[in-house]
Inverse folding.
């Protein structure tokens, strides 16, 4: 067995809870191995435990979310160095005065000095690399990994406790904390320790902000687990929910911390993490609202499709229009559309050539028809019901006479009339169906992935 000793450096008290002189050390283990002295700090140990736990859980659950465990493992192996480098560079960038005279200290993280948001940036870079190399949809990987971020954060915050850092201003709440660490720091940042600034009295307990973040992150972790169950149906929701919840949490916690990273702009000191947190909240709210509106429109279209199936009308999507502009064109039986509409029905008496020359007519292109059928199929809607054939009255006509529907679609012509795509001037049966005898080049079944036609 290797000899080691645990060094206790702080006496931490929670007077309101009746806890006094709790021995806390920054060092977890200190021992000699093969003649070399090795020190393991709680901060680094808890950081490693958090990463290991998140990695094991993520790899274990990958298959249930249509991901490969090996891909998730590769992500964590790439993320760890990216995250550490990003966290350190972020911290050093805003504390450059403490390192410019001795740059070698940049590589010494034994005393802390890792900024969470820098780690997020590094981790995101690793995620995009893995998504590209492994051909994984970015939103799929983002939503999956986002769940484990607050779990790792919550565990890691206890490293701040052992380091006696990341605490807040004075408080008279029962869980207020005081130690040699808090007293030393508050004495250092007070211009006149004999007359301390409001909220910065070294002799009074302070907010244990590490504990606030730990509890908040555990709640966020539980919420994200519930949200992720619907991540396939609602892409980016899990990731954006994390952005929103943690952004709000960090904004308020950062407001009472005494060791926040700051920068000066227009003569005002601005807390970096508060600014970043506010940006996270704004971005999350904007995108969540946009996604909610898009989902509402999609549901309205699906309801319209169902109504069309029930009433026996054909629904076409404008291939060059966004969902905001007349999402669905419903052509009723024997109904002529206005000249301002996107589609016009060409009478039997009018040839295709006449229609093409008529400036007031807008012709349906075969590409529009193919897109419309593909879009409709991607939503799972049925254009026609397979219980009946299309009769002669439903047959398309051109200038040369009757042509079968499959011939129309197979034709190299770029222009067909609305009747040539099956919009009969007579009544379509409510249970009529498309039987699949259109040219095989047109796709009618899709997995729905990657399509955003609604």
């Amino acid at each position: 067995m290797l000899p080691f000793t645990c060094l206790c450096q702080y006496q931490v008290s929670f007077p309101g809870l009746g806890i006094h002189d709790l021995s806390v050390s920054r060092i977890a283990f200190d021992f000699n191995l093969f003649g070399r002295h090795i020190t393991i700090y709680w901060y680094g140990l808890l950081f490693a435990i958090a990463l290991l736990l998140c990695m094991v859980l993520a790899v274990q659950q990958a298959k249930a979310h249509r991901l490969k465990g090996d891909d998730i493992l590769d992500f964590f192996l790439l993320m760890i160095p990216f995250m550490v480098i990003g966290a350190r560079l972020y911290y050093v960038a805003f504390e450059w005065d403490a390192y410019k005279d001795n740059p070698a200290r940049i590589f010494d993280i034994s005393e802390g000095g890792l900024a969470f948001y820098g780690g997020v940036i590094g981790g995101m870079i690793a995620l995009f690399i893995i998504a590209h190399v492994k051909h994984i949809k970015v939103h799929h990987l983002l939503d999956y990994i986002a769940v484990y971020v607050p779990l790792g954060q919550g565990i890691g915050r206890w490293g701040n406790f052992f380091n006696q850092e990341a605490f807040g201003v004075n408080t008279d709440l029962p869980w207020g904390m005081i130690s040699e660490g808090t007293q030393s720091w508050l004495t250092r940042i007070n211009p006149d320790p004999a007359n301390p600034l409001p909220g910065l009295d070294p002799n009074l307990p302070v907010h244990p902000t590490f504990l606030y973040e730990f509890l908040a992150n555990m709640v966020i972790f539980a919420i994200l687990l519930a949200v992720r169950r619907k991540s396939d149906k609602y892409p980016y929701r899990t990731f954006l929910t994390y952005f929103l919840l943690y952004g709000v949490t960090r904004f308020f916690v950062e407001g009472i911390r005494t060791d926040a990273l700051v920068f000066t702009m227009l003569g005002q000191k601005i807390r970096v993490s508060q600014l970043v947190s506010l940006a996270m909240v704004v971005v999350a709210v904007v995108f969540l609202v946009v996604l909610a509106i898009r989902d509402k429109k999609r549901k309205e279209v699906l309801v319209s499709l169902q109504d069309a199936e029930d009433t026996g009308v054909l629904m076409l999507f404008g291939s060059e229009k966004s969902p905001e502009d007349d999402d669905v064109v419903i052509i009723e039986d024997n109904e002529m559309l206005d000249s301002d509409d996107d589609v016009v029905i060409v009478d039997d008496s009018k040839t295709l050539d006449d229609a093409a020359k008529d400036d007031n007519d807008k012709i349906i292109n075969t590409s529009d028809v193919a897109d419309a059928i593909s879009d409709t199929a991607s939503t799972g809607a049925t254009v026609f019901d397979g219980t009946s054939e299309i009769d002669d009255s439903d047959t398309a006509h051109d200038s040369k006479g009757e042509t079968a529907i499959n011939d129309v679609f197979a034709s190299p012509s770029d222009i067909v009339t609305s009747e040539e795509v099956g919009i009969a001037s007579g009544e379509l049966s409510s249970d009529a169906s498309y039987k699949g005898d259109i040219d095989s080049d047109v796709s009618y079944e899709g997995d729905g992935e990657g399509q955003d036609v609604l």
